[in-house]
Amino acid sequence: MNPKPTLLSFREKFGYGLGDTASNIFFQFVNVFLLYYYTDVLGLAPAAAGTLFIVARLWDAVSDPMMGALSDRTQTRFGKYRPYLLWMALPFGIVGYLVFAHPPLGPQSKLAYAYATYIGLMTIYTAINVPYSALMGVMTPSAEERTSLATFRFIGAFSGTLLISLSVRPLVRQLGGGDEALGFKLTMGLLSVVAVVMFLITFATTRERVRPMKNPDTSVARDLAVQFRNRPWIVMVLAAILTLSNVAVRGAVTNHFYKYYAGDDGTPVLGFLDRTSLILSTGALAFIGGIFFTGTLGRRLGKRNALMLMTLLNGLTFLAFFFIPREAFGIMLAVNAVGNLFAGPTPALVWAIYTDVADYGEWRFGRRTTGLTFSGAMFAQKIGLMIGGGVSGWLLGSFGFIANEVQDDHAILGIRLMYSVIPGLLGIANALVLLAYPLDGALAARIESELARRREAG
């Protein structure tokens, strides 16, 4: 007879979800606005900004697995992963603010400052988000509850996305009074405070319950060797690289696309929202709407098949953007909303799958490496962001983009390709990679049941 699964309260699920609201305040701010900030506000060359993204992400090749191994070996009265939410919340807010602080520096000093603050942000992001992600794997042993928890997580995540979509451009205008540098600085300062408070609420409302079976061999090298024999993990890592390359390329040129192609001059078109804010906010609302279909799709199609289908449909909507004329903003609004609706269930499905992957590693190899599993996932995402962010800066430069000038046809073509065709093809490639994921619903249920009996016996 299987032990009764741990059912999580609404309070705990909601509190956990707030942690990804905090994370996505920074993630979305950086993904959508940082390249624009570097090129059009700070005055960095696009290629220099692209190289910065590459260098910063290379550091993650070291910091992500280090953080995963460290958190797996942490022992405190608060658990393994949860205490990092308390320890790192304030540094997370401070460094995020410094990225957009815009001190009065010369051109070379500005570039050095950008390197120092962005690499610092990526380091702190790793230190709080690897444990935060791994926490989902130890709050309950129930695969069904984890899927529910992942849904709450990504409602929280895209509430953060919606907050950024609605507020950043209007706040930059209002707080800056026409000075974009001051506007970005004050806006990020305000949002940093919000993010810190949310992480502290997540710490206060969650608990760790799953305890791995004791293993006297604590070798990090052995954990890494086991990880690279975990086929489901390898497939998901490849998929994550493609997913975040897709997100990074499109996100990096969103402001450029609407400013230089669709003619957004910052004039409000609906309330306080200009065209870019409107496209971002309606997309975020559609994404949140899509999240609510996660459970239904997962049950009817299986997590892998649902993820594959939604990823494919999302990629096709991106491709469609290439054929929309610049004056057809209404069509852009509709196609973007549909694409985000398709994408809505995908993050929750991905992270629910990663908890299954961690279970598979413990079941197959006798070692539970939850932190390493999730740190590997985050490393793959950052590699995707590195590729996408670096390529975006380099491509902008190669197509002849010049900040705050009227762009020629070649530069406009480059921006359009980066916003539509390149992310669309990456989305389709991601769906194809997922064909190799081997865990179906029956095997995942068998693994959950057998691990529950092992823990009860051990």
Automatic annotation (TrEMBL):
Q: Which domain of life is it from?
A: Bacteria
Does this UniProt record's set of keywords contain Oxidoreductase?
no
Transmembrane intervals? 44-62, 83-100, 112-138, 150-172, 184-204, 233-258, 278-298, 305-324, 330-354, 374-397, 417-437
Q: Which InterPro entries match?
A: MFS_2, MFS_trans_sf, Na/Gal_symport
Q: Keyword Membrane: yes or no? A: yes
User: Which of UniProt's keywords are assigned here?
Assistant: Membrane, Transmembrane, Transmembrane helix
The family database entries (PANTHER family) matched by this protein are listed as: MAJOR FACILITATOR SUPERFAMILY (MFS) PROFILE DOMAIN-CONTAINING PROTEIN (PTHR11328:SF24), MAJOR FACILITATOR SUPERFAMILY DOMAIN-CONTAINING PROTEIN (PTHR11328)
Q: Which family does it belong to?
A: Belongs to the sodium:galactoside symporter (TC 2.A.2) family.
- What name has this protein been given in UniProt? Glycoside/cation symporter YagG
Q: Which organism is it from?
A: Haloferula sargassicola
Name the gene behind this protein.
yagG
